[in-house]
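Worked example 2:
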Amino acid sequence: MTSKPAGKRPRYLIVGGGIAGCSLAYVLGQAGLEVRLIEAGEIGKTGASSVPMALMNPHRGRMARASELDLAGLHAMQELDQDLRAQGLDAGIHWTGVLRIASNEKQRKKWAKLTVQQLEPSEISSAYHAPFGGIFSAEAGWLEPDKLLRALKQAAEAKGVQFFENVRVQTLETGFKLETTAGIEEADKVIFCTGASENRGFDLPEFEPMAGDVIALEANITMPYPIAGAIYGMQNKGLIYMGGNHRERLEPEAEDIERLKESSSWFLKDLKDSAITQVWSGIRAKSADNKPLLTELHPNLWFFGALGGRGFLCSYHLANVLAKKLVTGELITESEDLV
């Protein structure tokens, strides 16, 4: 929808239609609640959630130790996939397992302490460059963000959730009156899921913008499994997608893209001479302590975001946590409450 929001004042108004906003709309809609979502652009076409691929791998960071939050996120995504399939919807989720290749011997020794499958160099496909071996997370996988967001939107709309695209919030007044490009919006509770949006017509929590890129390459190779790490990637419909480049400078330069390709070539053989067919660049929001923000700014005014690199892994789980708070009033006070 792109027309002016209409109808009676909803109980919940969600601002932002990325993975956080769509996940929350789906959860609240499944509970039969009155929900409206407004998005400044088109669902899945702008912001960090428009990335062409995303991994669901709980073994993150240099230590690759899966946190309780990331494991909870993975299991919640498995349940979501089942729920959407039961509704006849394709969420674009693929449970293929995910490979992490050790960059050096020191990293291999650290990973040896983990309770995840360890792989010797000889056990890893010759398509990869893996002289130090790696680890394999059999439960993990990857997804197509556009398909997932469309499935969440369709399922939420079937429960009565209203979606309005190309509607931008300009100011927020007391009493939760939002001036938008389509008119005035009001609700009982407002939740901003705006990611790293630059719209500052209202006060939101401070976060660190984190820029990154994804490149699509034409490569005459087969990639048996997605790979995770500082460089991550997978294969879909004949293209290899590789992501990385976490930098402070928000706009990419030519050397950033070449560096990403060069780094990717270390992990995947025969990739160096492949042609780049597409480049995606975006900005994620990350909190100072790298923990997601489910923050009540004022009574009944919330911010849900700053998910960093775990947006597609943990948004659905965190949406359930926040929805419980919104409906029951239960407190979210410590990081462990997010699990």
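The chain has six helices and 20 strands. The mean pLDDT is 89.
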